[in-house]
Amino acid sequence: MVIIAKVRVSREEWSSRFSEWYRRMLMEAGIMDYRYPVKGCGVWLPYGFKLRKLILDIMRGLLDSTGHQEVLFPTLIPEDMLAKEAEHIRGFEEECFWVTHGGLKPLGTKLALRPTSETAFGPMFKLWIHSHADLPMKLYQVVNMFRYETKATRPLIRMREVLTFKEAHTCHATPEEAERNIREAIGIYKRFFDALGVPYLISRRPEWDKFAGAVYTIAFDTIMPDGRAMQIGTVHNLGQNFSRAFEITYERPDGTHEFVWQTCYGISGRVVAAVMAIHGDDHGLVLPPRVAPIQVVVVPIPFKGAEEAVYQASREVAERLREAGLRTYLDERADVTPGEKFYYWERKGVPVRVEIGPRDVERQQATLVRRDTLDRSEVPIAKVAEAVKALLKHLTEALRERAWSWMKERVKPAVGVEEAREFLEARGGVVELPWCGDDECGQRLEEEVDARVLGTPEDVEAKPLGPCPICGREAKTVLRMARTY
Ligand code: 5CA
Ligand code: ZN
Hints:
Elements: H1 2-6, H2 11-28, E1 32-33, E2 43-44, H3 46-64, E3 69-70, E4 76-78, H4 79-82, H5 86-92, E5 97-102, E6 105-113, H6 118-128, E7 137-146, E8 161-172, H7 175-196, E9 201-204, E10 216-223, E11 229-239, H8 241-246, E12 249-251, E13 257-259, E14 261-268, H9 270-279, E15 296-300, H10 307-323, E16 328-330, H11 338-347, E17 352-356, H12 358-363, E18 365-370, E19 376-380, H13 384-408, E20 411-413, H14 417-427, E21 430-435, H15 439-449, E22 452-457, E23 477-482
Parallel strand pairs: 3-7, 15-16, 15-17, 20-21
Antiparallel strand pairs: 1-2, 4-6, 5-6, 7-8, 8-14, 9-10, 9-22, 10-11, 11-14, 12-13, 17-18, 18-19, 21-23, 22-23
């Protein structure tokens, strides 16, 4: 955000400024109304819902084209199912919302509102999978989920009812096949975030912070404008932990039986938050054209005597843009000034504005204004669609490049605790400290640096700058650390 880059202020101030900006923008741009009278719950508004849908469409496209099939499970999970995998229930029981009554009668078995769905899929996978021919089975759903979060809740970022949760659950015949699926899922998430221009770090979470019930967890994190890291997606290798608990077996060609190997991966409305926060600026949202509900807005600037000509040219331009397949809106409101319209659509992040005034009509041209730089250019009306398309392409690239270089500047290799602390204190971001690989040293680092461990790099080769700052032994890798959401 420009607001942060320009002025040097304390980290607390960045944080509260960003928080302020984020809350205001959610309402002003019409994304989510967070005034719903239940803590941690909000309402998707029409414009936000369209943005959400366009983002989910990309995810659905990627999953559908890689052999995944969409399903829809019930929200309720019986307590005894949720408890079948020991680590899982330990991780989630305190985070569940429980349904305890049917009307006035206490239920014999408590029902959880799904906090995630491994234990909902479990008994059904057992019924559906018989032989190796049934594998791999790759399913996903887009649903709401519930977590009784005790940390500060925040719209889209930490909800108690997460209204937008995409979870994929897969079963495989061998551990190698499951591992290949993990790589595929990472590839899908990369393409997804690349399509949104959201930069990411891919890290293997430490043992003490992996998903409850997983063998290991790979996470995608981004850095928010206030310098804090946010987890925007996770991919988990579940090994046979759940298949053993739920007795999900298959028959091999030789007649023997084996438990399946499972993976799961999820994203949430946090992705929408990341898109808005990372590309936004002082004027409001800046939406990547691919997911902008309106890609181009046409604003007539009528002038005494030339009203009819201006409106007519505006309609012609809008028609050309629509015909070219662009999501176009012609703002003909009579009771709103052109200046107010500019401001209104800027806040909503519409990537390109086309202005048509009397001078434009005279010259048979249109004036284009791109949202990211607010640069203006003029094009003949006959070429307006091509010109807008080219501009949208440039803008897409520019947003992605700007976001990546902004993030990269905030990832820093460090030698020791002091340096790491100072870096995080000054501008947030992510530090990479040498690490011997011992969990105890990792946890000591969390205390001494006063930051969370994101894990070890999965996207680049780790280059430790020295020995483990805690025990002094040779570093095997680096630990990424950050203050997090
Ligand atoms: N079953 C697995 C994979 S689907 C799972 O639930 N993984 S998770 O717990 O890591 O959640 C997946 C993603 O959902 C997280 O990476 C995070 O981006 C998002 N998420 C988790 N909790 C919340 C929450 N309370 N509000 C918003 N998003 C959340
Ligand atoms: Zn050590």
